[in-house]
Amino acid sequence: MLKPYFIRKNKEKVLLGLEKRDFKKSHLINEILILDEKKKITQNIINKILEKENLISREIGKILSFNNNNDHQIKSLKDKSSFLKKERKNINIKLEKICQILEKKLNQVPNIPDEKVKKDFKKNDILFQEEGICSSIMNPLPHWELSKKFNLIDSNLGTKICGSGFTVYMGKGAKLQRSLIQYFLDRNIQASYKEYSLPYLINEKSGFSTGQIPDKENQMYFIEKDNFYLIPTGEIPIMNCYRDTMLTYSDLPIKGTTYTSCFRREAGSYGAKVRGLNRLHQFEKVEIIQITTPDTSSYFLEEMISHVRNILRSLNLPFRLIRLSATDLGFSSSITYDFEVYSMAQKKWLEVSSISNCTDFQSNRLRLKYKTITGNTEFCHTLNGSALALPRIMAALLENNQTENKINIPKALIPYTEFDHI
């Protein structure tokens, strides 16, 4: 969340950033500043009334201390105090309404894009591309046909159990997925990320704190009876471990990793473009996060990018790195880099990781701060990324490693799968 004092101090920068995003509600900025000014004026009135109340209280104390039985004067002062308290109560109600409206408007404003992020509508920067293994056969099969041929994944069973957008992994397909999860976690832990095992359900406050609510509320599954949401990403529960926390400079950076199932409604997702594993309502993902100081978050963002790049290289998949344009940024993100792997059979690029620096946008909502070396208090910066999302990695591995009668397993995974081909 952007703070009113930041908006006031950097109004032009904020408006330019929102224009980059093609944000349609820029009028909110002036409304926020007007409301914030009203809030200050109203709070000052309350403070002055409190001063008068305290002054009256001291006067009554003086009269009583001198054993001056001036009941008439005391009654007059108490009447004034009672009137001031009623007035203060009424103004407090006005202040609460102003704060509620201000909060509601602030919640609608996304983070400001980094200077590196381009304004161009839907035009993302391809930063680099690496080749990997691609099947040499003439007509490679897409992963949904390979899955049927080798009895690995069955979407029909998922539909039977739950509905479309769910799938069942079986035999070596299940083992391959489990191996990928363990491999990603091991690589993350080796890179000093601390592992967390977390709830898959969150309350509204947790979703708000990381920016999914109200922005992505309609894309999340909601359990009405208990007022819980199913998580769309492991980022939410792991970041909320640090909600309402005061850290020290020496605590940072904090690095965390978690494996979770993720649940997304993905409204309107259907047809050939989302066939097979390309888009599911439930999928597995290994997440990494970092909590840093403001002056080191850019450095650690590059570190996270390098880490995911090395994992993809170890799987020998063709991949590329993209910096998203402002219009493609998530609500909380200041800058986002996507890794995409190439699907040999589908002949298209599939996103497998998004790595974002949310600057202090999330930490404002999380109330996540740290004490600097000089003893000042500042908001932390938060970063998150997939390392990695499973379905499209699985799709690319199956398609790119196929031969006429088998699917080869990348060398890095063989110690986990305990088989070198399917």
Structure description:
This protein has 422 residues and is an alpha+beta fold. 42% of the residues lie in helices and 20% in strands. The chain is built from 13 helices and 16 strands. The strands form 4 sheets. Strands 1-11-12-13-16-10-9-4 form an 8-stranded mixed beta sheet. A hairpin with a 4-residue loop joins strand 12 (335-343) and strand 13 (348-357). Helix 3 (27-65) runs antiparallel to helix 4 (71-106) and helix 5 crosses helix 12 (390-400).
What's the structural blueprint in terms of helices and strands?
Layout: H1 4-9, H2 11-20, H3 27-65, H4 71-106, E1 125-130, H5 143-150, E2 153-154, H6 155-161, E3 168-169, H7 171-190, E4 194-196, E5 201-202, H8 204-209, E6 222-223, E7 228-230, H9 235-240, E8 245-248, E9 254-263, E10 282-292, H10 297-314, E11 319-323, E12 335-343, E13 348-357, H11 361-366, E14 368-371, E15 377-379, E16 381-389, H12 390-400, H13 414-417
Parallel strand pairs: 4-9, 8-14
Antiparallel strand pairs: 1-11, 2-3, 5-7, 6-7, 9-10, 10-16, 11-12, 12-13, 13-16, 14-15
Helix pairs in contact: 3-4, 5-12
